Amino acid sequence: MDKLRQDLRYAIRQLMKHRGFTAIAVLTLALGIGANTVMFSVVDALFLSPPPGVHEPEDVKRIYIVRDEGNMRTTEGGPGMYADMRDIRTGSRAFSSVAGQTWPGDMDLGRGESARQVTGLVVTGSYFQTLGARPALGRFFGPVEDTIPASFVTVVSHSFWENRLGANPEAIGQQIRLSGDMYTIVGVAPEHFRGIDTDAVDVWLPASAARGEDFLTDRNYIGLNLFGRLAPGVQPERAIAEASAAMRHAASEFEQLDPTPSIILGPLNSELGPHRSQTGTVSLWLGLVTGLVLLIACANVANLLLSRATQRRREIAVRIAIGAGRRRLLRQLLTESVFLALLGGVGALLLTLWSTELIALFPLPPLPSLLDVRILGFTLGVSVLTGIVFGILPTLQASRFNLLPALRDGAPSEGSSRSRVRSGLLIVQVAISLVLLVAAGLLVRSLAEARSVELGLDAGNLLYASVDLEDAGYADDAANAFLDRALQRILALPGVVAADVAAFEPLGGSAMALGAEAPGREPEYDGEGPYANFVGPDFFQATGSAVLTGRAFTDADREGGAPVVILNERMANLYWPAGDALGECLEITDGVCSQVVGVVESIRHDTLDEEPVPKYYIPLSQQAGRGAWSGKTIILRTSGDPEDMIVDVRRSIQGLAANLPFVSVIPVTSLIAPDLRPYRLGATLFSLFGVLALLLASIGLYGVVTFTVVRQTREIGVRIALGAGRTDVLRLVVARAMAVTFVGVLIGLAGAFAVTRFMESLLYGVEVIDPVTFASVPLILLTVALIAAYIPARRAARVDPMVALRAE
């Protein structure tokens, strides 16, 4: 222990003596370790950390149903129904408890101007019992919550209790209005508890109350994500066998069900299951990328230490001469490198804390905390390992030299072996930097391609405004009158260019499936649709959808007039591929012939990566008898930033009645954001880490060239004295540096060709071997390297030969 303290004191003195070297090394390591700390937080939240508040989470397994019936084919496992949960619970003893949940959704809280939107999760009565959670206040759901008549009760999150209810201990028994129904608060969840997913939840509702009796009994109601707790001592294989057998026994009593269903068990962390999200995949890649950035940082600091080791040859020789063993010397030098890495780890933590708000701007998954015990332990471990990695090679190199020459002249000369090591480290940096930059270039181009997808509408200045009028007690006629008044108030707002009403918002995945036939036409199509939407006369102007042929609806297209219909381009091409749809007949449900008066752009139905589906539009005023729909949406186009109009639009609608539920006003771009998120995440952070890697490699190249110039001062002086011109010297120094860089580029290109083949699932509209990216990135890297080499080379070319010859 005394020797370790001596080594530490000596290491501190050495690092304080060379403050410039220490500052550069610590900053380099702080950037590398800091990037890894942040990405470990993401990977830890998605893949490693169990959901907080779950008792013995390793015993809780997600249950994925494999079935093939009707339109439901889930060969890799998917959601089930309440009946599946009941069959598994009653037919298998492998699970001590089985539960289910639907997807989180937005719910209206309260009425009037104080109305807000909260996130609600519909769960079965066994939900909290299966997770082993304990309430902070009150009670959780039980078997009675899965019975009819339903109990309208709710459990609220700890943050909801604090922020909405003022942490009132008397909150149990209070009632709150959620999406039109009154629910009694029976419990408060423990702090940080959010269930089995990473998304925050405000309120939990029993399935019997929120979904109704059909949800509990209908065997066609598939939409329940199941999970169960294994009984003590039960292995997953037994649970799979028993649960699959129970489901098959139940299915044998119903002809419409797949007779051979089975289940797949997965960990509670959904990203480790069969359905990893695109964001999770990108996060894993980013974890690998930050490891490469740290490797570049290690190579950089190793080069710095090699430079110092050369300069410390006389010091090391003296210590060996007076009796220091090589083992003790190795320990001393390794102590310095590990201590240096620990300083870099402290810097990484400071950078992480400093950049907390900046990190929140990146499209990362929700992070419970950037710094906790696990993160601190990871940073400490990475720092120590990093110190060993970048310190071991320079330490071994520093102790391998002839003692007498070092004592005789002390001249810090560099052998060919050490020069090769330095060049090799630089080649590694350049190669890794090029791989990262190529990957970043591919993802940036993917993001650009995804953003440029033809949506069929102009989403940039579009808002959707909707309110649950049925919940507010408005019948169809009253609801239509209300929407007319709301539309007029919105149109009167400054900054609103156009607005109209539609039964379904476009690009939201919602529409009505109505039978539609064109006499004499039977298109070959087995995909989704055709879907119908009921819209006002200014709908296409508001959405910015172009009318390709014919006309849009007018005020003359009203009830009692000739039925008309507008097709999207996809449907027109399916039914009338020759382009002669105008004036043709489309029979919709009731057999009435509606005349096709226009063809418009195909608006995407739901996601960016889907093909447009056949869709047709009917005037709102002519929807009678075709499935009237009261849940209408106002679509409005603004002249400026739509975000700036949200409050005014909500106030305009909310002001029409004092008892309205929450008025939802959302930018259309928020509907696209989830599809763009993985590409934004990859493009942003890959680019950031790629540029960081390029910066570190450039610093390394600059340092190598500078050190080489200092070492070759006498040689350069001799060359100039013998008649070499400054241009010759400049060309010589730059050529040597660029030769090393060029080798790194070639190796990096080979690595990029190999690595990017595994990135195909992350790309959109871009080939893995993209000529633009593979041509431009090496040019950029070579240009930066040329600049990094030119600066010290120019300094070398200005050497005074007389001064250089006297230098040694």
Q: In words, what does this structure look like?
A:
This protein has 808 residues and is an alpha+beta fold. Helices cover 48% and strands 15% of the residues. It contains 24 helices and 24 strands. Strands 5, 6, 7, 8, 9, 10 and 11 form a seven-stranded mixed β-sheet that branches. Strands 16, 17, 18, 19, 20, 21 and 22 form a seven-stranded mixed β-sheet that branches. A four-stranded antiparallel β-sheet has the order 4-12-1-13. Strand 2 (68-69) and strand 3 form a beta hairpin. Helix 1 (2-17) crosses helix 11, helix 2 (19-48) crosses helix 11 (326-354) and helix 15 (416-451) packs across helix 22 (726-755). It is globular. The model is unreliable at 403-414 (pLDDT under 50).
Tags for this model:
seven-stranded mixed beta sheet; 24 helices; alpha+beta; globular; single chain
SS summary, helix count: 24
- Number of DSSP E strands: 24
Share of helix among residues?
40-55%
Radius of gyration: 34 Å
The structural class is alpha+beta
**Main beta sheet, described?**
7 strands, mixed
